Amino acid sequence: MVGRVAGKRPRVGIVDVAQRAGVSVGTVSKVLNGRGQLRTETRDRVRTAAQELGFVPSAVAASLHSGRTYTVGLIMTDHHGRFSLPILHGAEDALGWDETLAFVCDTRDDPIREQHYVRSLARRRVDGIIVAGRRTEPRPPLSGAPPVPVVYAFARSADPADRSVVVDEEGGAALAVQHLLRTGRRRIAHVTGPNGHASVRARVDGTARALREAGLEMVGEPWYGGWSEVWGRFAAAILVREHPDVDAVFCGSDAIGRGVADGLRDSGRRVPEDIALVGVDNWLPTAEGCRPPLTSVDLNLQQVGRTAGALLLEAIQCGATEPGIQTVPCRLVVRASSGPAGH
């Protein structure tokens, strides 16, 4: 006779729950799987018994019953995690409601590595896949993907038949400009990243639209450059020399904004008393490390992930993915850099 391991509780099974609740094993199965026409009183009694006994349903049994593995793949292309980690956290929030786990695959923007992960996920029979990009340019659809739902997050799929969740970057730029206008600024410049980048185009368009709606024009042309503090410092020095009446700068990223703040300070301009600043990304190490702390447009990437996760679960449950693009709005996080003008 094999003795019980000291201090270790025996595993509670569905038979134990049935005995505690005074019902059949079949009734317990129906309650746990949400099936059958049962009285509310019976369902409550079974659930109470399961909770009192500490019963944990078997994932294997659930998989056999539903035909699902309760796993999904999350393919990331941003190995630094700056954009993909918030998306991952949001997706996990949504997937957790369904007790679904994610296999996280970092492709490091390498198509060969991506194909390797797609094949690995297919072998593991995942229920679906989320593809999280680090740039907003449309990307090719997954090649060789298994016949499961796929949702693209942040970087939309180039195929209109796919489902994508993107950020309203143009609307985010308009938020920034409208905020600066409310603080009394009227001479607003825009210092941003590389010309031709999809995010840059969207932010330039949003800036120009918000100014046009207010009956104003941008100070000079958009200032195109790199996504760096070095570019921000350089641009600020030239900007105040060519346009000494500028009273606000909307920057295409927080890194640019921090560089602009340093450049303005080196030029003898005060932030925000003389010139207000707003950046994009709400990347805390940069935004809060800026002097003064930088007002920033948050791209709401966690909500992008939550939306992508919810759409994927919906597609898994109904067996098909609805085509189209869903847009998530940005939000503005106000800090000291855009305070009232001084005298």
Automatic annotation (TrEMBL):
Keywords: DNA-binding, Transcription, Transcription regulation. The keyword Nucleus does not apply. GO terms for molecular function: DNA-binding transcription factor activity; transcription cis-regulatory region binding. Residues 12-66 form the HTH lacI-type domain. The keyword DNA-binding applies. InterPro entries: HTH_LacI, LacI/GalR-like_sensor, Lambda_DNA-bd_dom_sf, Peripla_BP_I. This is LacI family transcriptional regulator.
